[in-house]
Amino acid sequence: MPSELLQSLRNAIRVRHYSIRTEKSYVDWVRRYIRFNGMRHPSELSGDDVSRFLTWLATERDVAASTQNQALNALVFLYANVLHNPLERIGADIVRAKRPVNLPTVFTEQEVMKVLAELGGQYWLMAALLYGSGLRLMECVRLRVKDVELDYRCLIVRDGKGQKDRVVTLADALIEELRSQILRVRTLHTRDLAAGSGSVWLPHALDRKYPNASRESGWQYLFPSGNRSADPRSGVIRRHHVDSSNLQKAVRRAILKAGIVRKASCHTFRHSFATHLLASGADIRTVQEQLGHSDIRTTQIYTHLLERGGNAVISPLNRLLPRLTPKK
């Protein structure tokens, strides 16, 4: 495996301030692409080889359309920004993975209460923020103490999807819990400082611009990990945020205990936030801003449950049901 190529890929990604998750994903796809082509260097390959790889993913590996597109994005990035040889011909003969049209799963208000009742500690607070503020999973996990505006009843989502900041609402019912959580973070940070640690990762080289910021309490993660660990890029030992998979597992267990059989996850809280806001009479533009959608058509999908039976169609069985009796 050409390690120099992969390191160049990582450098190109970091220069553009892409997330560590994107970096790991792109590097993995390039590795798989090289193995698929018999360990040949990508500079020896062309758009036709990329097309064959993407077609193989769809026909032989049966990947989802989003997975195939992710692989394509990784390879387009590789050729354009690392090899400096943009792909000229690609797409015409690719077998595309079928993109399903899925309606989002939405909790009822009673189901939200049941799931939250099965959670405890910081996972309860995190799940409550997912629903109460419409946060994405990683937006919640990456919150920092300074992003919580208790007096203004809002959260500042920094560098969200599409590298956009936005302001979202904060439920009054969570104010005291958040005060307690911030106090716990400050206590933990004080112990870390006393132990000679206490720094946190800062984005976009802010640690060089503000050398002391990484040790300030405001920059600490609102939901810190229980243990310090090595930064995957620099190797520096720091306290990072809690692993997102821990919250996912806790929510999944809570959903099962609540007796909900539909496919649901952390993201279902966000879907429910949008749908319940619209049902309460909120303007769709307001909901769009809260969710951080660039296109209002993305937000409009949440109106599907507000249209009874689809376009207000009333089932003809309603007229017959009082006269129907099941066979004994």
Characteristics of this structure?
328 residues, mainly alpha, two-stranded antiparallel sheet, 14 helices, globular
Short summary:
By secondary structure, the protein is mainly alpha-helical.
- Rg, rounded, reads 24 Å
Instruction: State the distance separating the first and last CA atoms.
Output: 70 Å
The averaged pLDDT comes out at: 89
Biggest sheet, spatial arrangement of strands: 1-2-3
Largest sheet: 3 strands, antiparallel
Helix content: 40-55%
Unreliable spans? none
SSE succession = HHHHHHHEEEHHEEHHHHH
**Range of strand content:** 5-15%
The 3D shape can be described as globular
Structure summary, number of beta strands:
5
Would you give an account of this structure?
This protein is mostly helical and 328 residues long. The chain is 48% helix and 7% strand. The protein contains 14 helices and 5 strands. It has a 3-stranded antiparallel beta sheet. Helix 3 (47-59) runs antiparallel to helix 4 (65-82) and helix 5 crosses helix 10 (244-257). The longest helix has 20 residues, at 175-194. It is globular. The chain starts with a helix and ends in an 8-residue tail after the last helix.
